[in-house]
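Data card: per-record layout.
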Amino acid sequence: MQPNTSTPSGRMAKFAAPGFYLIWFGQLVSLVGSGMTSFALSLWVYQQSGSITQFALINVFAILPHLLLSPLAGAVIDRSSRRLILILSDSLAACSTIFLAVLFFTDQIAIWHIFLAVSLNAAAGSFQWPAFMASMTLLVSKGQLGRANGMLQFNRAAAEIFSPMLAGVLISQINIFGILMIDLATFLAAVITLSMARIPQPIRQVREKPVPRNTFWQDCKSGFHFIHGQSGLRWLVGFTALSNFFWGMVGALLVPMILEFAAPDQVGLILSTAGVGLLCGSLLMSSWGGSQRKIKGALIFEALSAVGFILMGARPWVWMIAAGAFCAHFTIAIVQGSVMAIWQLKVPAEAQGRVFAAQQMITRSMAPLALLCAGPLADGVIKPLLSSTPNLNSMSSSWILAGDGQKMAVIFMGMAVAKLLLVLTGVLNSQLRKVEDEQALDALAA
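The structure for this 446-residue chain is written out next.
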């Protein structure tokens, strides 16, 4: 069965229907507001508890609902109005913000309230992301999906750069309650733009033989069945999952490594440079749209991100680590935008909610796994290895001269090599290389 590639008609079909711009702008505003709240809450939890474990638990509660609810979310999205799902998910996230605002205002807030609110927000996000991605193919012309995904990566970059900056300035003036009120206003902006936008429902394929409609629970599984039935997409989801794991390892260790030899303000400089790299990459993807063969562009820029990893681990020089962070983050929008365009082109519109939710569950499961592995790998494997192998220790000492930063730099170099091997595997694997040519199967079979 061929995917539904119908595009909006008229002059706007050259890029996107007006509804896409409305939703994109509303989500941009909402992401900045949510980013401000996330920064402020993380800071409050650490100040109140002084515990790195409590601080890290915020990320755990932000990820688990995605893993648990994704199959359910996919089935709901493909059975319902996608615009309604987007409105309801933003409204649920707004309710979690109101919940926190009331507790802060009445001075009854506790850390477990933060964990609960973060979980509710993540539960809303587990419906929102696949619904938004599935809606894009109905609003954006087929040839411009790469550019549209670049615009979405721009939203992410803007939130990463401006949200901490704004929250840091405002928190001393209006406190967390004020920031929560701003976040609530941005949710309202997102809901208003969604209410104004028109998102058409996908046209179901007409089949020669009637196909019995799946039960709800069959639909929950059908996204995984679709991916399993497509050899190219199986390799693509594996490629993305491993890439996310490598990024998760580096993200967990970057700040601790830098703090071994640099001041906190230099850490901030490096992280800001990384954000600028992400912004520049998203601007390039928004204007360029990626290579004609999207998988080729993804592989090339994934290799470039490995070069960024090498620069970050090669020397204890702030300028070199900043350059590596810029290089690595520059590639994110192009790799993810290209990969997402492949999924949007290969999956029939009527099944995209289920398939994208399944893909989300598989790839995002790598983040908590990386967080769990980073510390034990550094302390339990690399450190003893360096201690027991003088030649390796002497060779690696040219990267980070002393202290715990050395073992983390070794992991950075290891992740860079792993990335290059992943790219080489993709180049040599004909199923992944030809994923864009693979014939789509019937997505409605359970």
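Known properties of this structure: The two ends are 15 Å apart (CA to CA). The first helix runs from residue 18 to 49.

See the next section for split statistics.
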